[in-house]
Design brief:
Helices cover 23% and strands 34% of the residues. The longest helix has 14 residues, at 103-116. It is built from 11 helices and 32 strands. The strands form 9 sheets. A 4-stranded antiparallel β-sheet has the order 3-4-5-6, with no helix packed on it. It has a 4-stranded antiparallel β-sheet with strand order 9-10-11-12, with no helix packed on it. The chain is an alpha+beta fold and 489 residues long. Strand 27 (426-432) and strand 28 form a beta hairpin. It has 2 domains: 2-118, no CATH class; 180-483, YVTN repeat-like/Quinoprotein amine dehydrogenase (Methylamine Dehydrogenase, Chain H). It starts with a helix and ends in a 6-residue tail after the last strand.
């Protein structure tokens, strides 16, 4: 009843023009108005949208020829996006959906209506038909953006998509719809987990390259909250994830079932298990938090050293030492605490700003990716016990934001960007830590590499990139073994 009354109000509002094919004079008047309306960035201002609102029937009447004469579809796309923010406009378009003349605008309005939950059988069928045709599906993907994978799944599973009482089959999309933030191997090397900016993390079968499971609980109401870090427990039974949704969560590695959810972790950057898998720590900017996984209790909150201004340094990496008895974190000085007492045991200050950190398997050495002079990247090898700098690798032209130790501690990997812009190819460099010489370069990512990890046997390297892909490499030869599927739109 409420929808019916609202529709009546809308129909009265648009009565001056009504829905019929607009005259050439009305189209000309509308287009002239559109050219004079102020914009804010790429969109029309709210005031502009209100001025154009009475011309909504004219907008829907525009043909391909009308817009070809103007030469640019974008102003009508931008205006449609503004008009779709108001319920009464959506109700009007929903009622007259079949009469929209321009195919691209009709597709756009189908997306706008569906995303707002204002749907009809006609709208859903229009989207279903588009998904069946490669060219139209490609256009639909461009309209929806990075979340097309999830949009498509919602369309196919919508109750109105049922045919003769049968739900449309959903072909599971493999791969991420956003850049990769973190990768980690299971202790047996059989499974790889990758976290992404798309709000998901995926478990992969290393041998086959097939997706085992995608966990999407960090997506809320369709909004992706970046999964910033993932980790396997040393016993292989659990996976931890940290997200920009202010939670750190623990999952059953076999079933994907949730085990623990720790909330109000506002600035989580990096999550790691202790060697006995009983504790979990997260670098939470000016604090480091440690939980007891036996009962889910917060065991300790450790504060980072303060700057001279009184605010705390921001820790982005954390590692357990001495079988989980001690904890190390970066952010300003490297600090080491005893977990049981919370007492600080040691601190030392690298000369540069730490952007990446990895602890050797035996816990004796640190690999740091640092920035000097605001842009120069340097990889350094430090001895933990003595806080002594052992080796500095050749300087890079850009900050080094990901590093990793091989399990034997003799080889290291660091990311390198081959160019100065966001679309520059990303590579990985393997180093001999005994001599400090470059062994080989792994090239294949189209954009910057943001995550790297060695397999437990040290023979394989995994990498994740801004290009949404996850790759496996042969460490001995530098050859690409496999690129896991990724969502392409």
């Amino acid at each position: 009843m409420k929808t019916y009354l609202l529709a009546c109000v809308v129909f009265c509002f648009f009565a001056a023009i009504g829905f019929q094919d607009a005259t050439d004079a009305q189209k000309k008047e509308f287009i002239e108005l559109l050219r004079t309306l102020p914009t804010r960035g790429e969109f029309y201002t709210p005031e502009s949208v209100q001025k154009a609102k009475p011309y909504l029937p004219v907008l829907l009447s525009l043909t391909e020829k009308d817009i070809e004469n103007i030469g640019d579809l974008y102003p009508f796309v931008a205006l449609s996006s503004g008009l779709a923010r108001e319920k009464e406009n959506r109700v009007y378009v929903l009622t007259h959906f079949a009469k929209i003349r321009h195919p691209d605008l009709k597709m756009l309005w189908a997306v706008l209506l569906f995303n707002e939950g204002d749907v009809s059988k006609e709208v859903v069928n229009h989207l279903l038909e588009a998904l069946k045709e490669p060219e139209r599906a490609k256009l639909l993907g461009q309209m929806v953006g990075p979340d097309f994978k999830f949009f498509k799944r919602k369309v196919l599973s919508h109750p109105l998509a049922m045919q003769n009482g049968v739900v449309q089959p959903i072909i599971e999309d493999e791969g991420h719809a956003g850049w990769i933030t973190s990768v980690a191997f299971s202790p047996d090397g059989a499974t790889l987990v990758s976290g992404s900016h798309d709000g998901t993390f995926i478990l992969w079968n290393v041998a086959t390259g097939k997706q085992i499971r995608s966990i999407e609980d960090h997506r809320s109401s369709g909004r992706p909250f970046e999964v910033v870090s993932v980790a396997f427990s040393p016993d292989g039974k659990k996976i931890a994830s940290a997200s920009s949704d202010s939670t750190v969560r623990v999952w059953d590695a076999t079933t994907g079932a949730p085990v623990w959810k720790f909330s109000k972790v506002t600035y989580a950057h990096h999550v790691v298990f202790s060697a006995d898998s009983r504790r979990l720590a997260v670098a939470n900017c000016d604090t480091v938090k440690v939980w007891n996984l036996a009962n889910g209790s917060l065991l300790r909150t450790l504060k980072k050293a303060e700057m001279t201004t009184g605010s705390g340094y921001c820790s982005q990496h954390v590692a357990f030492l001495n079988n989980g008895n001690d904890l190390l974190a970066d952010g300003g000085p490297i600090q080491i605490w005893n977990v049981s007492t919370g007492r600080e045991l040691k601190r030392f200050k690298p000369q540069g700003s730490v952007q990446a950190l990895d602890l050797s398997a035996d816990g004796t050495k640190l690999l740091l990716g640092e920035v000097f002079e605001g842009y120069l990247g340097v990889v350094e090898l430090w001895e933990v016990a003595t806080a002594k700098l052992l080796r500095r690798l050749p300087e890079e032209q850009d900050p080094v934001e990901s590093v990793a130790f091989a399990p034997d501690g003799k080889i290291a990997a660091s990311e390198r960007t081959e160019g100065n812009d966001i679309s520059s190819p990303g590579t990985i460099v393997l180093w001999d830590l005994t001599t400090g010489t470059e062994l080989r370069k792994l090239a294949g990512h189209n954009m910057r590499v943001d995550a790297i990890a060695f397999s437990p046997d040290g023979k394989t390297l995994a990498s994740g990139s801004w290009d949404h892909s996850v790759k496996l490499w042969d460490v001995a030869t530098g050859k690409e073994i496999r690129s896991f599927p990724r969502t392409i739109r």
